[in-house]
Amino acid sequence: MMKFRFRRQGADPQREKLKQELFAFHKTVEHGFPNQPSALAFDPELRIMAIGTRSGAVKIYGAPGVEFTGLHRDAATVTQMHFLPGQGRVLTLLDDDSLHLWEIVHHDGCAHLEEALHFQAPSRPGFDGASGLPSLAHITVVLLVAVGDMAALGTEGGSIFFLDVPTLTLLEGQTLGPDEVLRSVPDDYRCGKALGPVESLQGHLRDPTKILIGYSRGLLVIWNQAARCAERIFLGNQQLESVCWERSGHTVVSSHSDGSYAIWAADTGDSPTVQPTVATTPYGPFPCKAINKVLWRSCASGEHFVIFSGGMPRASYGDRHCVSVLQAETLVTLDFTSRVIDFFTVHSTRPEDEFDEPQALAVLLEEELVVLDLQTPGWPAVPAPYLAPLHSSAITCSAHVANVPAKLWARIVSAGEQQSPQPASGASSWPITGGRNLAQEPSQRGLLLTGHEDGTVRFWDASGVALRPLYKLSTAGLFQTDCEHADSLAQAAEDDWPPFRKVGCFDPYSDDPRLGVQKVALCKYTAQMVVAGTAGQVLVLELSDTPAEQAVGVASLDLLQDREGFTWKGHERLSPRLGPLPWPAGFQPRALIQCLPPAAVTAVTLHAEWGLVAFGTSHGFGLFDYLRRSPVLARCTLHPSDSLAMEGPLSRVKSLKKSLRQSFRRIRKSRASGKKRMVTGSKLQEANAQLAEQAGPQDVEVTPVQRRIEPRSADDSLSGVVRCLYFADTFLRDAAHHGPTMWAGTNSGSVFAYALEVPAAVAGGEKRPERAVEAVLGKEVQLMHRAPVVAIAVLDGRGRPLPEPYEASRDLAQAPDMQGGHAVLIASEEQFKVFTLPKVSAKTKFKLTAHEGCRVRKVALATFASVACEDYAETCLACLTNLGDVHVFSVPGLRPQVHYACIRKEDISGIASCVFTRHGQGFYLISPSEFERFSLSARNITEPLCSLDVRWPRDATRVSHRSRESPKLSQANGTPGIILAPQSRDGSPDPICKEADTLEPPEAMLSPMSIDSATSADTTLDTTGDMTVEDVKDFLGSSEESEKNLRNLSEEEARACAILIK
């Protein structure tokens, strides 16, 4: 009869329906700057901008909240992009010589980006026997001809082909070969030399029948396509880089490989023209690098703009990434910290206007986008409402704060505005304003905090689709660093020529790696926060609306407690500045706690109501009363064999070697003993033996197969690392009295619970009486498997997590049930377990590693609201595993609800960077500069909903071919999208996508509140010390599993055709 007792029941239809109303997985939007951009385009009529990347992604941006994303089927580099003005269509050229036509179409009132057609050029040059013309070789440049919906394709062989854009088919009989052009060139210029590749094609704004052709050799030709003849020829002899045709057609500007540019008169003089009107090398006379691109923009004042990239003196500044802006006698050399990809100006393109009158200059760099206001004196930079470089300094940790009070939000925004005051002129506005954002205003404000390698913490508005920068906190000013003297010397050595001007905020170089931020925690009700760093520094800060000059109190806490036999071999502590220091408006430091040894902080939590901050390192954890500025507790967690914990981050090579050696020894020992080993001693071994002996057929239907889990050795390296800290008002000493407690979990599976005596604060004041806070060890739990403790949370009598500090006392949340028995949820890397309080007896558990074969990386509690009933919601436990899967469990029953594949298991940094919100959403890094946003909630979804007014008439039959959707597939940069069936050149559906209708619907996504902090979810991205042999095993996997994954991946890629993201 026992086997029927444990038999799993069938699925409950009502519960399954409720799950569909609560949970749904979506990857919704990518925040940040596109990784590895390679192409840029701008539609002056619709005011939208497109960016292409090396992974084949197409991203179109308009007003804040207006975003479209697509992905080419082949992960090839996007080399060029061209908008069909006003039509909502963009033509992309990839490095495999394929052309793709993308369209912004509307479904159900919302606009989406879809790939309509594609054209593949022949891969090898040859001769077309039918026409006698050279076949299409490598495409070097594309020009959209305004008349006739044509595109001119310049090739490496010097020929120009013409393409019908609506069908993406070559037009017969219109190809222009180099021989035809050479007939109009004087004999002495030919000299037996070829013209070289077509470097540039430019159209005339007022006469679309004319095309300006630039060849690599330096020859410029104004070709009349209607008359099939050359109207003007300019005999340049310097290798050509780019050409610009002034809007009236009277002036042609060419840039060259020797760092010079030339101005040619196109309306006077004889043809061919031998000498330009003006030829200058702006940064000569010494050898200069090539000017890669040049623009000429006319102004009514007569002071025209010449804007070019490159051209710097090769010997002195050849490594600089510059764009120069010249107007009359004013020259500014914009100095960037990353490579220039492309740039454009926002100016008038109406044919009836006589002058360009540029308003703004947008420069796409490899790591950021910079926009300058050309109508304001000084040409200031325009703050970007989106596309801000998240990785201006490398991201080391992140945290999310939900439901930010309006007062705190306004104060943070005000502090950010004082950091970068807006110009008085109203003309300095964001110029890319196309489309309309149809999404509703967010019901609550969300803050995303990112800690960086340079010691800064950046605050981002994560309430909607556009991730907007709000405020930047810098902690470097509190410490003495070695970089200040070097900076002063560098500034003194800077010459006045060229007139460099530093532009942009991308700065990958850290002043001191010890400044790196490892953990952050924010109390949204008191505007207090904690920032912990790499050198053991813990800063307590408070938001102030006015600047101040004050000294910061410094306290040290020795976590080793004079333990003998340990010598710190890592970096030194940072030296704080002494005396009063000036602090701008914003978060200002109130106290600095220095952990000794100065190891990186691995866990931190703040309880503003009690005035306490807890922090942990690889050596132990401490508790500090920042109101009285006095330490409360210091506990060493080191094992006698934890010598690696004393070596610091500079000894990782030895650590990895030792870790690998120990792992292989354990594997060999386990295999050698095998089943011959006698099962004696621990309960774990007895349980494993029972599982091995049960081999009846009834086990298949009685319970899932459980894997044998080897217990971890107590002397594993870095076993003393503190993984999580938690404050709770609960029952620890007895069942009749509750009070403040602090919980700490370590890498060796140890949990320490301390009862705290916190004196009541004086009414109306922040200072508490002179009596100090006391901490007494109440419980100590050792998990049997010694698996690292990832998170701890206390549940009240109703099984709900306790509210945050001040939530209950200020009636901002339902008061916890203090009548029923409390329980503590302890999440380790291998299992979840609920213990009753205060007895700490096991109540419920779920062995994730034994059942699923994976380990827990991130854990969070989230509230999932129903889409069917506004008043119904459930609090569940969500976890992310080392395989990139998301599992959701009920609380406190720990029953599995749903699970989804979220992140590729090979993306170790993405898994390590994941952070959850309280309402069913989450973020993880898909590249150093991009967060992928996802949702596990069926109700709480943040995704682009926008529209765009276009004037291109749709073909209903073509749209119907593309309306079939298939599931989201992983993009090259980690982002999935909805795949749509594109058409081939003849307009028929692509046969590769015939099975798109039979695929399963897209999977869902994750979003909970982290339980390793009382106020926010955080994660450390600097995983140097967290990388283990198990992580390497997860990445490698078995050969059979790898082959299976490759087969599945090839099948999915065979179905992928195009992308649509709402």
From TrEMBL:
Q: Which GO terms describe its cellular component?
A: cortical actin cytoskeleton; plasma membrane
Question: Repeat as a keyword?
Answer: yes
Can you provide one Gene Ontology molecular function annotated for this UniProt record? myosin II binding
Q: Which domain of life is it from?
A: Eukaryota
Where is each Lethal giant larvae homologue domain found?
280-380
The cross-references to Pfam families, in alphabetical order and at most eight, read: LLGL
Which Gene Ontology biological process is one annotated for this entry?
exocytosis
Q: Where do the WD repeats start and stop?
A: 447-461
Q: Where is this region: Disordered?
A: 959-996
Task: List the Gene3D superfamilies hit by this protein, alphabetically.
Answer: YVTN repeat-like/Quinoprotein amine dehydrogenase
Keyword vocabulary terms for this entry: Exocytosis, Repeat, WD repeat
* InterPro entries recorded: Lethal2_giant, LLGL2, WD40/YVTN_repeat-like_dom_sf, WD40_repeat_dom_sf, WD40_rpt
- What protein family is recorded? Belongs to the WD repeat L(2)GL family.
Q: Which PANTHER family match?
A: LETHAL 2 GIANT LARVAE PROTEIN, LETHAL(2) GIANT LARVAE PROTEIN HOMOLOG 1
Any idea what this protein is called? LLGL scribble cell polarity complex component 1
Protein source organism: Capra hircus (Goat)
